[in-house]
Write a structure and sequence with these properties.
The structure holds three protein chains of three kinds. By secondary structure, chain A is mainly alpha-helical. Chain A has one domain. Chain A has five helices and no strands. In chain A, helix 4 runs antiparallel to helix 5. Helix content of chain B is about 75%, strand content about 0%. Chain B contains 19 helices and two strands. Chain C has one domain: Helix Hairpins (Orthogonal Bundle), CATH 1.10.287. Classes of the chains: A mainly alpha, B mainly alpha, C mainly alpha. Chains in contact: A-B, A-C, B-C. Chains B and C meet through helix 5 and helix 6 of B and helix 2, helix 3 and helix 4 of C.
């Protein structure tokens, strides 16, 4: 699209959308939201970038090689969190009993490995949405 | 590491290798084949160790996160799930070994690595459905299975594949949504999602709300019947299984359909319990639909001219046998149904793989042009002959033993009218399998010079065919190797 | 009367079953491929509504613990978590079926199921 108003407004709004998405992801264990909702907001901000500025500019921001690494790394991170508790002698995906720091209720750094898993899920969902959108738009 | 973790390690191995494959390598060469076959080797040894461990020590439950049964997800690893996981891993290893040289002429070069990623995710989700003890967990794995099995059909970019895959996706989604609605109705009444807790709660709730349990059972039955192609709901199966590449057809028809039958047996015997399911008359419905499916599937198969479409309709008929075994609802009937799951997996994979070898060498799918083919591709046609004779029911091959056990179970349960249906179905099987065997070995092909030549297909393809043929004859001559294990496991399954 | 009162008490369940039947009718009777995908989405939404309204306890608060409150009744949070997984599954099915529809349009040139079956039966009758 070549509209001037859309480009100017997107330049102002997209940073706020991304900050809001990261806020929802980081507070996933304290308030409603969590991995999938925050990841969808991040993906929606990148889709707005694609629609306002065209496909080539958006592909420079999020190339296919980086999204492949993000998706694979997120799944391997969650599996390694589960295998960490097998190596300590407990069952798969054990939270407090196998050594993760539980902390106080109500703070950000608390509740074991839940913030790390939420971060991985959020990044993965955002990168999946933008990859699917680019693949469908590109079919000419 | 404690050996109770081995089933989880086996499932995670497929997930890790499948997800990280496209990132590490780009070209499909010998290093890639070594990675895939070593993954299968480790998985087979872990599955074997778990099977022997269960025989010595007994079944156990595995809680995720140590949360216990009321709050967390649980895996139930007992005799039958370890046996079924051993079958899944072994048979898919043979099929993947066959497919290393066969996919060259089915799809483009750049899609090879994606194909193996989708196959690994398919095996991961099948192992998840077999082991899981929680109804919602079974639903999630079932969705992964339906998406990946649509993926291995539409990876061949032809017109027919896209249409078959679209119809498969829409009908499978209808089935999953119906299953999910049944789970929601059961959760509303009992308040648990774990199978063992739900069983205890249903015994108490059954007097208060019988209509709710009846509705929930109806929805679950319809959902699973659409996905495992029982007679009126089988319309997606011929297109999907005949237009897919040959290793995909063998995987779909040999393994994916069986997992849904096993889930139906779990729901009827473990969630509802034997008394309630007989009060609801569900075994009567299963037996009637199974009997109709055995006859109508064979009648449709007689009219086909394309070999893979004929094999797909033959699958519809054989699925009726397994449902008849479950519908009889005695111990011997359930054991006969499970034995037919194993024997049909071996026979149908052998049939699809040898048909794939014929298509690879001669690009020929029409049945009437098979004259004299037995002397040009002797190994493929003889494995095809062994499997076809097993389907008809000739003694010495594993298919005869499953029909024998099924007939014995039917007589002992006091319903001898099903013997007529079994005999009629075997007779119809003979009508469409025997002409192929006769025209391959007895008729003459006029423009062939040599008298008998060795198969001109790659070595990985005919070694996997020889392994399957050997297994069919071995279990046909000594069926006790398998049947003793199954009859030892079935009484704990029913109670 | 008694029937209307019990219908209005369980309006959630009645609405979700109505949506399920509307979605099923759309999938089975319309011949346009996109309308079938929309029908599947309507069916999935109806099941999510049914499942979430199971967990509601009348008089319960939102299930978030603030430090320094006493024990009150909370609404059951388990169905909402299960539905989050269900929404992800519904999204992936929709995306995959839409990309299949794009490929079908490129090959056959039409989006109508009846015309596609006609073209297919003409090219196969040889």
């Amino acid at each position: 699209m070549d509209d001037l108003i859309v480009k100017v407004i997107s330049k102002i709004i997209i940073p706020f959308m991304q900050v809001f998405g990261i806020f929802v992801i980081l507070h996933g264990h304290l308030s409603p939201g969590g991995g999938f909702a925050g990841g969808a907001i991040l993906g929606a901000s990148l889709i707005l970038l694609t629609l306002a500025f065209g496909l080539n500019d958006a592909k420079k921001k999020m190339p296919h090689s980086m999204s492949k690494l993000v998706e694979t790394g997120s799944i391997l991170l969650i599996i390694s969190l589960g295998l960490f508790s097998i190596l300590n002698g407990y069952n798969f995906l054990t939270n407090g009993a196998s050594g993760f720091n539980l902390g106080k209720t109500g703070e950000i750094i608390s509740a074991g490995f839940i913030p790390i898993a939420t971060l991985a899920i959020g990044l993965k969902v955002g990168s999946t949405l933008i990859t699917l959108f680019h693949t469908i738009i590109e079919e000419d | 590491m404690n050996s109770t973790h081995y089933p989880i390690i086996m499932m995670l191995l497929f997930l890790i290798v499948g997800v990280s494959n496209p990132v590490i390598k780009k070209k499909f060469d010998n290093i890639e084949k070594t990675i895939i076959m070593s993954t299968f080797f480790i998985a087979i040894s872990l599955a074997f160790y778990t099977f022997i461990f269960i025989k010595i020590e007994g079944p156990f439950f595995y809680n995720f996160g140590g949360w216990g049964r009321k709050f967390g997800i649980e895996f139930a690893i007992d005799g039958f799930s370890s046996l079924m996981s051993l079958l899944i891993v072994l048979l898919s290893a043979v099929i993947v070994w066959y497919s290393f040289r066969d996919i060259g002429h089915e799809m483009d070069d750049e899609n090879f690595i994606s194909y193996y990623t989708i196959v690994f995710l398919l095996i991961f989700s099948m192992l998840g459905i077999t082991f899981s003890n929680d109804l919602f967990n079974i639903y999630v794995f079932m969705e992964i299975l339906s998406l990946t099995s649509c993926g291995i059909i539409s990876i061949k970019h032809k017109k027919v594949n896209f249409l078959a895959s679209f119809r498969y996706l829409i009908l499978n989604t209808l089935g999953s949504l119906s299953f999910f609605f049944g789970i929601a109705l059961l959760y509303m009444v009992t308040g648990h999602l774990n199978i063992i807790e739900m069983n205890l709660a249903i015994q108490q709730v059954w007097q208060v709300t019988p209509t709710n349990i009846l509705l929930a059972t109806g929805f679950i039955f319809i959902g699973l019947a659409i996905k495992s192609a029982l007679f009126p709901m089988h319309i997606w199966l011929p297109d999907a299984h005949s237009s897919a590449p040959s290793p995909s057809s063998a995987l779909l028809s040999g393994l994916v359909v069986k997992v849904y039958i096993f889930t139906m047996a779990k729901v009827i015997f473990n969630v509802l319990g034997k008394e309630i399911s007989q009060a609801l008359d569900i075994d009567l419905f299963l037996s009637i639909f199974a009997a109709i499916s055995m006859v109508m599937g064979s009648i449709f198969a007689i009219a086909q001219k394309d070999i893979k479409r004929m094999l797909a309709y033959s699958s519809v008929a054989q699925i009726g046998y397994m449902f008849l075994g479950i519908g009889i609802a005695t111990e011997l009937g359930l054991a006969a149904g499970f034995f037919h799951i194993f024997s049909h997996a071996l026979m149908k994979s052998a049939l699809f793989l040898s048909a794939g070898a014929i298509i690879y060498k001669k690009d020929l799918r029409d049945i009437s042009k098979f004259d004299g083919l037995g002397y040009e591709l002797p190994i493929s046609m003889s494995v095809f002959t062994i499997a076809a004779l097993g389907m008809i029911g000739i003694p010495g091959i594993v298919g005869f033993m499953s029909k024998f056990y099924l007939a014995e179970a039917v007589i002992l349960a006091g319903k001898p009218y099903f013997i007529v249906v079994i005999l009629l179905s075997s007779f119809l099987n003979a009508i469409y399998y025997l002409p192929i065997i006769i025209s391959a070995f007895i008729k003459k092909d006029p423009d062939r010079e040599k008298l008998l030549e060795f198969d001109d297909i790659p070595r990985s393809m005919y070694t996997s065919l020889i392994i399957l043929g050997f297994c069919m004859v071995l279990f046909g001559m000594f069926p006790n190797l398998l049947m003793n294990t199954i009859t030892a496991v079935v009484p704990t399954f029913i109670n | 009367m008694d029937l209307i009162k019990s219908l209005l008490d369980h309006i959630n369940y009645v609405g979700s079953v109505t949506l399920f039947v509307i979605g099923l009718y759309t999938v089975l009777t319309h011949s346009n491929l996109l309308k079938k995908v929309i029908g599947i989405n309507i069916m999935e939404t109806s099941i999510f509504l049914f499942f979430v309204s199971i967990g509601y306890i009348s008089g319960g608060k939102t299930p978030i613990i603030y430090p320094g409150t006493e024990d009150v009744y909370y609404v059951n949070p388990l169905p909402s978590t299960l539905i989050l997984t269900g929404i992800v599954v519904a999204l992936s099915i929709t995306v995959y079926s839409l990309s299949l529809i794009m490929r079908l349009y490129k090959e056959y040139g039409t989006l109508d199921m009846d015309k596609i079956m006609e073209i297919r039966s003409e090219t196969q009758d040889e």
